[in-house]
Sequence to fold (426 residues):
Amino acid sequence: LQNSLLITGASQLLTLRGRGPRRGKALSNLGIVKDGALLVRDGLIAAVGPRAKIEALPEAKTAEKMDLVGRVVLPGFVDSHTHLIHAASRAEEYELKIAGASYEEIARKGGGILNSVKKLRAATSEELEKRALTALKQFAACGTTTVEAKSGYGLSVESELKILFLHSELQGKQPLEIVSTFLGAHVVPEEFRARGAERYISVVLEPLLREVGKSRLAEFCDVFCDRGAFTLAQTRQILEEGKRHGLTPRVHAEQLTRTGATQLAAKLGAASCDHLEQVNTSDIAVLAKSNTVATLLPGCDFHLGLKQFAPARKLIEAGAIVALATDYNPGTSPTLSMPMILSLACTQLRMTPAQAITAATINAAYALRREKRIGSLEVGKLADLAVFEVADYREIPYYFGVNTCWMTMKRGVVVHAANKTTIQPA
Ligand SMILES: [Zn+2]
Fold:
């Protein structure tokens, strides 16, 4: 029985070796092997290194062969922040934003997240699943192999559980790994606005978190802590109750205003705090000392036309674990392209291409607490990889708005091929 695949011909093989998340200068070290090769067996990486060494292995002689003819290979991207399940785009709000309406003005008029909630509640599970499956194919086509997915457009017991159930259904219906996060505390839904946030929070705390914990439909609990969403005290209450149900916290923090959510996240041992456009120096210092990942979402600022991006360089210099994600969602970041996020990270956050790649692979894997299985190309890890039609990794973010991903592999299986006739899958 032959289950081995020998991959050769990588002009640069970006291993990201040396497990665990990276801080400071280590973000720049991609562990590049020139003319590298990989041996894949049963979905795992069996060997990795210089071509001559890997080709000399007895197993390599009988393995199936794949020649990349000078392309670049790196670990599949880990997109650690998405709102995968939603019913429709919000293209109608796009024009309002361009005309000058702010995100919050649109939200006050019933647009924004509540607009998506209305659409999601009206959609069937089949419709939602179909849209998500289409999106997941596009994620794969951009080199992404693991996708975190948040609920949060249901905001009722029934609709939130419907979304979380879809996350687990999707796991079995397509090849990418879905990491499920409960975001029942996204905003207060319309029907609770007159009654007050506390009444809705009691729904999140009691029937919802109890059910999510019991059913294990989510691993993480997230809260949108901001003006127009939830206060710091409410955020703490929800995340602490989530922890009691076995859910690891993560937070939407300091996006529109500084609330103190970052320091709360660190205190609670959150896996990540995401956005961070408004962090101050004391927040940065706290993050630098913590294991809470600073996940930056430049697609959001780009789409909203905002000028203030998160202080990526300061975070890296201070020693925080910086990650990048798409924040794929219909209102503020309608992209599922990690290469586009890398381009924005380079031009807007002033990260180098190497730092951006580290942030989108091993550090993002750590943000999902999966750094031992994915995020780097090392023996024993999943054979999750992305091959780009470039000879130098810096060209991945350099070419912006075009997709140079040539092939994506998940657990050793080709899940995207730009040119099917030239790729011989395992
Ligand atoms: Zn988000």
Notes: Residues 81, 83, 252, 327, 329 surround zinc ion (CB under 6 Å). Residues 197 and 372 are 39 Å apart (CA to CA).
